[in-house]
C-alpha cells in the first residue's frame, strides 16, 4: 500500500511536470503552424529584409523592427550591464553583511515590479525629461533603453552575484595570501574565474530586454521605420505583436505570428548560449 | 500520510481548474472597437438598471476582432468604428451614433485651424515644421494609431485620400495613449475620438477643420467634415434579447446618453 502511494504521487508529479513542458510544445507548434505558411507566402527574404511594414497595403517587412530590437537592447545593455556588474561585485565582495541584507531584497523587489508600472513611470518621468533636455518627441530609443536598462538589473545582478559566490574560497584566499590587494584579487582572480557565469547573466539579461513588451510599447514610440538618431521612435519585434494583435485578422494576424517566430528564434539562441556558458564553468 | 495529502491536494487543484471553465452567464455579449467600448459599457449599465433590463457583457478587442467574433458566433453584437469591408457586407448592421474625429494639439500650440490638405501633408511627412502651417518654428511630432485600428482607418478614409501615413509617425495603441502623449508634448499632433477630447487629466486642444470648430453640433449640421459611424453588427437580423438591447440603444433614452457623452445621433435615432 505504501509503495502504491509512493508510485502514485510520483506519477502525479510527473504528469504535472509534463504539463509545463507540453505547454511549451503547444505554444511552439502553434506559432509555427500559424507563422510558417505566411513566411512561405510572402517569402523569407521579403519578410526579414523588407523595410516597409504596412499591413493595410500588403507590405510585411520587419527589418526596421529587427533593427529596433537590436538597437534598444544594445542601449539597455550599455546602460544596465555596467551598473549590474558593479552591483554584483559590491554585493558579493565588498558590502558588509548588513548592507547586503538591505540590498538583496531591494533588488528582488525591483524584479517584482510589474512591467506596466515601469512603462508608466517611464512615460511620466523619463519621456518628458528626454523631450525637455535632449529634444525629439521623448518616446523613442533612449527612453526605452533607460527603462530596459533598469529592468534587466535584477537578472544580471543576481546571477552574476551567485556565480561569484560559487567560486571556491581558495581562489580568493590564495590570491590574498600571495599579497594581492582586495581590488587586485577582484580584478585578476575573481572576475576572470566567474567569467562564464557573468557572461550567462549578461545573456539572460539581454534576453529579458529582447522579450519585454508592455513597458516598451508605452515608451518606444512604435514607429516602424529605420531610426536616424537615438531620440527617434522605433518599433521592436515584441511591440509589433503587442500593438497590432488586437486588431489583426487574416494575413496580418499570420504576419504577427511570423514575427513571433523570429522573436522565438532570437530568444532560443540567447538562452542556448547562456546555457552553454553556464556549463562551461571551469571548476 | 504525506503522499495521501498530496494526492488530495492535486485532486482539489484539478477540480479547481475545471471549475474555472464554467459557462459565462451573461445573456448578450458585445465585442469590438475600443472607440465604441466606453459608450457601449455605459449603455449596458443603464440598460441593466431598467426593470426589464439584463446583463450585457461588453468586451474590447477592436473593430475587426469584434466583427470576426460575430462571424464565429462568439459575440452576439460586434462594435465597429469603421465601415464594413466588402467581404463583411453579408452581416446585419446599424449605425448607433456618429463620432467626430478630433485633430488634437498641445494647448500651447498657436495653430488652431488646419485644412484637410494641411493635415494630410503633415501625416504624409511633406509638412514637417509648424511654421509651414502658421505656427512656431518647431518640428512636428506626428502621433497616429496602429494598423488595423478603426480610428486609423477612419482617419485614412477621411483625410489621407490615398496618401500614406509616414512610417516615422509615433504609434500609440489607444485613444487615451494618443491623448496622453499629445497633452505632454508641445509640438505634437494626434487624432482621437471627439468624445474623448475632454476625458483626461491634462487638456488638449481640438482644432477647427476648414474653419469649422470641432463640436458635436458642427458634425450634426455637416460643417465639420471629420466624422465616422459607430456600428452595431450582428450575424443576422437581430431577435430576442439582442434585438431588445439594440432597440434600447436606438431609443430616445439610449440616444440621450450617447449625446450626453459627446456623440452625435445615429441615422436611425
Describe the protein in words.
The complex is a heterodimer of chains A (283) and B (269). Chain A is mostly helical and 283 residues long. Chain A has 2 domains: 2-48; 64-280, MetI-like (MetI-like fold), CATH 1.10.3720.10. Chain A contains 13 helices and 2 strands, in the order ααββααααααααααα. Chain A has a two-stranded antiparallel ribbon. In chain B, the strands form 2 sheets. In chain B, strands 1, 2, 3, 4, 6, 7, 8, 9, 11 and 12 form a 10-stranded mixed β-sheet that branches. Chain B is of the alpha/beta class. Chain B has helices at 2-19, 37-49, 63-71, 116-123, 150-160, 175-184, 216-220, 240-250, 252-260, and strands at residues 28-32, 56-61, 77-80, 92-105, 113-114, 141-145, 170-172, 188-193, 205-206, 208-209, 227-234, 264-265. Chain B has 9 helices and 12 strands. At the A-B interface, helix 1, strand 1, helix 5 and helix 12 of A face helix 1, helix 3, helix 5, strand 7 and helix 6 of B.
Taken in chain order, the helices and strands of chain A follow as: HHEEHHHHHHHHHHH
CATH class of the largest domain in chain A: Mainly Alpha
Q: What is the averaged pLDDT score of chain B?
A: 86
N-to-C span of chain A: 45 Å
Q: Radius of gyration of chain A, Cα only, in angstroms?
A: 22 Å
| Helix percentage range of chain B | 25-40%
What is the assembly state of the chains in this entry? Answer: heterodimer
Radius of gyration of chain B: 22 Å
CATH architecture of the largest domain in chain A: Orthogonal Bundle
At CATH level 3, the topology of the largest domain in chain A is MetI-like fold
Segments of chain B where pLDDT lies below 50 for 5+ residues?
Answer: 19-25
Q: Which structural class is indicated by helix and strand composition of chain A?
A: mainly alpha
Continuous helix count of chain B: 9
Please report the number of helical segments of chain A: 13
Largest interface: A-B, 39 and 37 residues
Number of E strands of chain A = 2
Amino acid at each position: 500500500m505504501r509503495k502504491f502511494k509512493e508510485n502514485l504521487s510520483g506519477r502525479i508529479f510527473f504528469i504535472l511536470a509534463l504539463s509545463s513542458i507540453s505547454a511549451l510544445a503547444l505554444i511552439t507548434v502553434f506559432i509555427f503552424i500559424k507563422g510558417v505558411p505566411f513566411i512561405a507566402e510572402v517569402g523569407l527574404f521579403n519578410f526579414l529584409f523588407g523595410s516597409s511594414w504596412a499591413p493595410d497595403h500588403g507590405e510585411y517587412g520587419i527589418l526596421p523592427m529587427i533593427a529596433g530590437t537590436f538597437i534598444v537592447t544594445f542601449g539597455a545593455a550599455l546602460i544596465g550591464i555596467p551598473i549590474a556588474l558593479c552591483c554584483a561585485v559590491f554585493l558579493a565582495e565588498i558590502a558588509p553583511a548588513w548592507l547586503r541584507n538591505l540590498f538583496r531584497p531591494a533588488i528582488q523587489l525591483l524584479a517584482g515590479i510589474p512591467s506596466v508600472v515601469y512603462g508608466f513611470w517611464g512615460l511620466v518621468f523619463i519621456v518628458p525629461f528626454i523631450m525637455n533636455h535632449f529634444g525629439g518627441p521623448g518616446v523613442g530609443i533612449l527612453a526605452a533603453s533607460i527603462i530596459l536598462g533598469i529592468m534587466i538589473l535584477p537578472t544580471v545582478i543576481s546571477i552574476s552575484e551567485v556565480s561569484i559566490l560559487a567560486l571556491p574560497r581558495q581562489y580568493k584566499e590564495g590570491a590574498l595570501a600571495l599579497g594581492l590587494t582586495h581590488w587586485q584579487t577582484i580584478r585578476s582572480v575573481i572576475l576572470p574565474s566567474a567569467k562564464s557565469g557573468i557572461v550567462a547573466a549578461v545573456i539572460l539579461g539581454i534576453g529579458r530586454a529582447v522579450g519585454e513588451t508592455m513597458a516598451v510599447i508605452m515608451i518606444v514610440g512604435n514607429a516602424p521605420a529605420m531610426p536616424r538618431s537615438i531620440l527617434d521612435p522605433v518599433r521592436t519585434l515584441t511591440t509589433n505583436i503587442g500593438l497590432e494583435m488586437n486588431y489583426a485578422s487574416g494575413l496580418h494576424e499570420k504576419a504577427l505570428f511570423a514575427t513571433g517566430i523570429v522573436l522565438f528564434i532570437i530568444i532560443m539562441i540567447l538562452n542556448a548560449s547562456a546555457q552553454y556558458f553556464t556549463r562551461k564553468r571551469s571548476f | 500520510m504525506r503522499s495521501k495529502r498530496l494526492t488530495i491536494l492535486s485532486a482539489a487543484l484539478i477540480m479547481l481548474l475545471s471549475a474555472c471553465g464554467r459557462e459565462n452567464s451573461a445573456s448578450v455579449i458585445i465585442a469590438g472597437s475600443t472607440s465604441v467600448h466606453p459608450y457601449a459599457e455605459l449603455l449596458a449599465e443603464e440598460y441593466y438598471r431598467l426593470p426589464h433590463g439584463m446583463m450585457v457583457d461588453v468586451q474590447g478587442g477592436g473593430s475587426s476582432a469584434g466583427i470576426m467574433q460575430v462571424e464565429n458566433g462568439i459575440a452576439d453584437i460586434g462594435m465597429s468604428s469603421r465601415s464594413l469591408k466588402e467581404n463583411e457586407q453579408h452581416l446585419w448592421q446599424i449605425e448607433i451614433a456618429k463620432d467626430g474625429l478630433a485633430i488634437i494639439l498641445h494647448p500651447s500650440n498657436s495653430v488652431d485651424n488646419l485644412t484637410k490638405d494641411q493635415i494630410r501633408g503633415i501625416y504624409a511627412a511633406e509638412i514637417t515644421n509648424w511654421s509651414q502651417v502658421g505656427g512656431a518654428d518647431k518640428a512636428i511630432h506626428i502621433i497616429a494609431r496602429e494598423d488595423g485600428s478603426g480610428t486609423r482607418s477612419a482617419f485614412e478614409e477621411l483625410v489621407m485620400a490615398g496618401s500614406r501615413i509616414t512610417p516615422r509617425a509615433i504609434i500609440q495603441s489607444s485613444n487615451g495613449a494618443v491623448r496622453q502623449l499629445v497633452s505632454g508634448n508641445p509640438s505634437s499632433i494626434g487624432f482621437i475620438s471627439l468624445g474623448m477630447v475632454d476625458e483626461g487629466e491634462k487638456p488638449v486642444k481640438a482644432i477647427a477643420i476648414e474653419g469649422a470648430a470641432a463640436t458635436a453640433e458642427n458634425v450634426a449640421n455637416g460643417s465639420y467634415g471629420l466624422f465616422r459611424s459607430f456600428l452595431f453588427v450582428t450575424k443576422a437580423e437581430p431577435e430576442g434579447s439582442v434585438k431588445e438591447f439594440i432597440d434600447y440603444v436606438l431609443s430616445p433614452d439610449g440616444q440621450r446618453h450617447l449625446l450626453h457623452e459627446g456623440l452625435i445621433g445615429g441615422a436611425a435615432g
